[in-house]
């Protein structure tokens, strides 16, 4: 059989081709350098080429990252891609969109690791509204030994309960916990019905990156107080209007590796760290973020402080950049006091690159207080009038 070779083709995208039925005819087609394949909105496409038995040895290579994306496909295409005649030994990224036959095909796989043995990134998109819980038949994809990143977008899961199917439909939550501990990155975007990230004490204990965006029904805390993030390096929460207190103080104390924190446009959030209740005269509990270098608080219209409890002091030995933008209610950073020896500026605008736009009043608490006065001139004027009748008023708060 005549062979057709594309020796240097490394990316192939087939998109919005409503009449395309096949790519290739009788020829055996090889893509020795292909590292990325994206097929979307090709409803008549039945096969990428006619002889599927040989593609598994030619898609992808050892150099770079291989990727395939499947969204809005005719069911026969996904069936072809999950065929037992086809393997992706070098594929590192799988973008999987929903279709009606997915469950049956995944149940038909003997072992997902036979097909995706090097898969590192799994992206799941556009799962239908009737799927309120993460489907257990997807668990074998999460079980892949080299999987590092899970990305879920545009789905209607109410809760991320990751469980495998056992014999007779029995669940194996312990196995799920072990599998999820391998993941180092979790990205959740546009999960409009999601009310809980997870309930288990453990599950994502080795996460380094957590990005949560457009999940408006997340309530109260981002995660339960029992959750620890001892390996987390980047935390980003964007457009999550249901969260009121980001994390409990017990979770905050586990963030020893955190380097970047971005909390953006979460309109109901009142404080970042939920403090413990107790006697104000008791010994204060110190919470240290030893590696936190960047803190961004943007568009938090109800934020009143980083932590409102006077029972906690904070240490930021590495903090060098703080951006506080459009947070009109924040009056002070930490009620219990803080130490940030490397910090000498606060940027009131994320676009403020010029030094003259930075603000610094000797300490982070004092700088936040100045910003509050600038953002609320009418309220500050009223307070000034009231204080004229009480000349003994002064501020003794630790900064």
Automatic annotation (TrEMBL):
- Keywords assigned by UniProt, alphabetized: Plant defense
InterPro entries recorded for this chain? At4g27190-like_LRR, LRR_dom_sf, Plant_NBS-LRR
Q: Where is the Disease resistance protein At4g27190-like leucine-rich repeats domain?
A: 91-227
Pfam hit, one: LRR_RPS2
Stored PANTHER family: NB-ARC DOMAIN-CONTAINING PROTEIN (PTHR33463:SF136), NB-ARC DOMAIN-CONTAINING PROTEIN-RELATED (PTHR33463)
Q: What is this protein called?
A: Uncharacterized protein LOC111295985
Q: Which organism is it from?
A: Durio zibethinus (Durian)
Give the classification, highest ranks: Eukaryota, Viridiplantae, Streptophyta, Embryophyta, Tracheophyta
> What gene name is listed for this protein?
LOC111295985
């Amino acid at each position: 059989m005549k062979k057709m070779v594309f020796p240097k083709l490394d990316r192939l995208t087939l998109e919005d081709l409503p009449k395309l039925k096949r790519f290739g005819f009788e020829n055996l087609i090889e893509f020795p350098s292909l590292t990325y394949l994206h097929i979307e909105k090709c409803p008549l496409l039945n096969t990428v080429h006619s002889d599927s038995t040989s593609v598994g040895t030619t898609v992808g290579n050892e150099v770079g990252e291989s990727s395939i994306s499947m969204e809005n496909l005719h069911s026969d295409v996904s069936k072809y891609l999950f065929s037992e005649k086809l393997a992706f030994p070098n594929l590192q990224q799988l973008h999987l969109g929903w279709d009606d036959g997915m469950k049956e095909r995944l149940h038909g796989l003997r072992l997902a690791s036979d097909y995706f043995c090097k898969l590192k990134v799994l992206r799941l998109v556009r799962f239908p509204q009737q799927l309120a819980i993460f489907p257990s038949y997807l668990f074998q994809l999460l079980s892949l030994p080299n999987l590092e990143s899970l990305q879920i977008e545009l789905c209607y899961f109410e809760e991320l309960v990751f469980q495998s199917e056992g014999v007779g439909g029995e669940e194996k939550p312990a196995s799920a916990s072990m599998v999820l501990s391998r993941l180092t990155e979790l990205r959740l975007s546009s999960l409009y019905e999601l009310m809980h990230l997870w309930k288990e004490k453990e599950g994502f204990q080795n996460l380094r990156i957590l990005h949560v965006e457009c999940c408006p029904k997340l309530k109260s805390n981002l995660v339960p107080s029992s959750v620890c993030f001892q390996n987390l390096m980047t935390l980003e929460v964007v457009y999550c209007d249901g969260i009121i207190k980001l994390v409990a103080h017990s979770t905050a104390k586990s963030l020893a590796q955190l380097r970047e924190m971005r909390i953006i446009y979460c309109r109901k959030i009142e404080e970042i760290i939920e403090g413990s209740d107790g006697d104000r005269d008791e010994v204060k509990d110190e919470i240290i973020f030893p590696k936190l270098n960047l803190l961004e608080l943007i568009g938090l219209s109800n934020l009143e402080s980083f932590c409102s409890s006077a029972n906690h002091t904070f240490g930021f030995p590495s903090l060098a950049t703080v951006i506080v933008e459009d947070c009109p209610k924040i009056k002070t950073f930490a009620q219990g006091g803080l130490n940030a020896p490397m910090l000498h500026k606060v940027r009131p605008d994320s676009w403020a690159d010029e030094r003259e736009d930075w603000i610094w009043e000797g300490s982070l608490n004092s700088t936040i207080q100045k910003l509050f006065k600038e953002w609320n001139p009418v309220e500050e004027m009223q307070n000034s009038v009231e204080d004229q009748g009480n000349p003994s008023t002064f501020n003794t708060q630790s900064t």
